[in-house]
Each structure stands twice: as structure tokens, then as C-alpha cells.
Amino acid sequence: QIAALRRLNWLALSEAKPRIIVYELPGGWTLLVGATDADNDYLSIDVARPDDWWFHADKVPGSHVILRAKAKEEPSRDTLRQAAAVAAYHSKARSAGVTSVHCTRGRYVTKPRGAKTGTVTVKRGKVLKVRPDISFATRQAARNHTESKGTIDAQ
């Protein structure tokens, strides 16, 4: 019976529509933020492309944040710090002063077999020290998350 309940719970989670918060940063950079553990899995494993940037506050629960890569442009250090500040804001470190945020490319983020929802492994990256903030980010309208793997398109 316990196995059946776990399967029903997993099915319910897998069928739930992801709730992704979308921001635009200065310079036209798109930022995707997971609202739940299931959304974090969806963003980090199904949506993030190898060249996208991935962020998560260090040692505290929080959202996985994806900075969409642009075809012929690398984000500036300021853009990376802004994305990290949004990740810190969407974490339990929101009320902290300066906090550490992991930053890496999507290609270095994997889900270990059997890991609980929202848990990933990061193979390499760096840590940015930022203050939680979203004042520079513009929240965007809801997006369609049912497109092919790796895309989130405006409706």
C-alpha cells in the first residue's frame, strides 16, 4: 500500500502544471524561477539548456533559477550577479544580508538517480556573494511550459 501511495503522489506531481516565475533583467536577459521542488526539477532537468546559467542559494532551501543563454552574447558579470540576487531573494536567505549563491552552466547540473524532488548535483561552478534583491528585474506574464523540451515560449 505504501508503494501504491508513493506512486500516486509521484503521478500527481508529474501531472501538475509547472509554476515558473519569469523575469526580464536589464539587457533583455530572461530569468526562469521555480516555485516548488517539482518546478525546480522541471527547470533544471527538462528546461535548462547546456549553455544556460543555473543559480541556487548556498546551504538553504530555495528556487532553482535559470538565466537563458543568448546565441551570440555572454552575460556580463553584473547580469550574473543580478541573477544570483534573484536566486537569493527566492530562497530562505531572503532576509539575510550578503549570501552565497552557486552559479554554473546548465550542462553541469544533473539529477542523481533516486534523489528526492528538487535535489540536483552540481559538478562545477563558482559561488557569488550577493544581497537578495529583485528591484532591477521586471516580472513577466505567464508563459507556456508545454512546448518541446528546452523551450518556454510566451503565449
Strand order within the widest sheet?
8-5-3-4-2-1-9
pLDDT < 50 stretches: 145-149
Bin the helical content.
10-25%
User: What would you report as the Rg, rounded to the nearest angstrom?
Assistant: 15 Å
Q: Give the amount of beta strand, in percent.
A: 25-35%
Overall mean confidence score, pLDDT: 87
Tell me the number of strands: 11
Question: Total helix count?
Answer: 3
Shape: globular
N-C termini distance: 41 Å
- The helix/strand series, from N terminus to C terminus, equals HEEHEEHEEEEEEE
Describe this protein's structure:
This protein is of the alpha+beta class and 155 residues long. The protein has helices at 2-15, 37-47, 77-89; strands spanning 20-25, 29-34, 53-57, 65-67, 99-105, 109-110, 121-122, 126-130, 138-139, 143-144, 153-154. The strands form three sheets. A seven-stranded antiparallel β-sheet has the order 8-5-3-4-2-1-9. The termini are far apart.
Relevant terms:
alpha+beta, seven-stranded antiparallel β-sheet, globular, 3 helices
Briefly summarize what is shown.
With 155 residues, the protein is of the alpha+beta class. Helices cover 25% and strands 27% of the residues.
Chain-wise SSE layout:
Blueprint: H1 2-15, E1 20-25, E2 29-34, H2 37-47, E3 53-57, E4 65-67, H3 77-89, E5 99-105, E6 109-110, E7 121-122, E8 126-130, E9 138-139, E10 143-144, E11 153-154
Antiparallel strand pairs: 1-2, 1-9, 2-4, 3-4, 3-5, 5-8, 6-7, 10-11
